[in-house]
Please model this.
Amino acid sequence: MSHNHSHFVNRIIVATAVVAIGLVMAPTGAHASTGVLASSSATAKTAPGQPVFGDKGPHVVAVQTAIMRNGFTLTGGATGVFNKATKRALTSFQKVVGLKATGVVDTATAKVLKVAAASTTTVQATTTTVAETTTTVAAPTTTTPAIVYPLTTSTLPVRGAKGDAVVALQKALKAAGLDVKGGIDGAFGSGTTSTISLFQTNKGLTVTGVLDIPTAVALALVAPIAAPAAAAVSVASTSSLLNPSSLPVRGNRGDSVRTLQNALIKAGIEVKGGADGVFGGATFVALQKYQTVNALTVTGTLTTQTAVKLGLVAPPAVAISVFPVQGPCSYENTWHAPRGTDRKHLGVDILAKEGNLVYAVADGTITKLYTVGTDKLAGNGVRLTMPDGTYFFYGHMQKIADGITVGTKVKAGQVVGYNGKTGATNTPHLHIEVHPLGGAAIDPTPIMAAVDACSVTTPLPVPAA
Model:
């Protein structure tokens, strides 16, 4: 069971058949992921220096690494081959951030992914024959200028702020074709808030009026990943962020541990012995100090929440504000685990006692109900849809909460049901899927891990209306 995505509280005993549980979505089901690769637009043009389908090499690795660092699963990992899996993952990324879903690394996609172009240096020989004398003239060397982002994820302005960061935001909105009421005055007020909401609506993002990371990325104000230092890069040189599915644990040694230690030191936390690449007691204590200072769950382990806060992994593609199950609970990453002979697991299974509360992970509307009588696979469940069309499918609940029906508006943290084992399972757990913009399911594990609360056993307060 994955160290980073498994949380055991009060020693929950999990049946050995856990890998076989969970809802398997039929390809034609109402809540199923189709798994169909979106076709590229015939007019899509690959950006200069970017790889195309079928290419191999370091420039493909750079794109693949960027996709994974944004929370998307890429079957096979960064293989250096631009194959169907890469195209499929790229298409999913484009859908989520509001780009045209082509599966092609066009200029806009390269900019949001922040992947540098492969070397565009071209040497062309011009041969001129004069009295049997050959003269060779080399064409000038051309380079692609680096993209400069005006903000970072730690300097995003909020309502009430004033200054250069707000000016940068307002200029970006203006460049996107939107007029900010009051003009570019450097003051984040109601005019800027309403313009952000309009931009989010146009791009299919969650409409909040807040400059969150997905909105900042879509406005090209911040970069979601660190760009490679040179055009011709190796896998190692693109690894300034860590792989969210294999974060280092105590006892590990190597570059990933050193990256963690350097991040802690940069954050002002002492690591006795320095960045020695050994995850021992000193790193454990330093992590505890960092988690305490930042009001995170204090474990001394590199949890996903801690890694996101340290900037070691990119925030998940879809952000939620509430963990869906009352603790104690546990879960692990079983994304695309086989289910039967021809199906794959499209969600994450959160194991908890039968009857534990199940919460809305975000504000939205209940758009579908599932019942044991109508869905033998899902059992009792709901579909919660956000304003941008992103929806969360909940399955296997013991029962749906009173007052929850199609059309019900819910707030993040509101009880929508109770954990159970209805449908195709014998073990109490919540199966939850994430479908960005109403499309195919993506791996929900990092999304849940970013707000993990399996240790929280006290019921959440009722959210304000």
Remarks:
- The first strand starts at residue 125 and ends at 130.
- Confidence is low (pLDDT under 50) at residues 1-42, 119-146, 225-240.
- Residues 18-33+319-449 form a domain with the Glucose Permease (Domain IIA) fold (CATH 2.70.70.10).
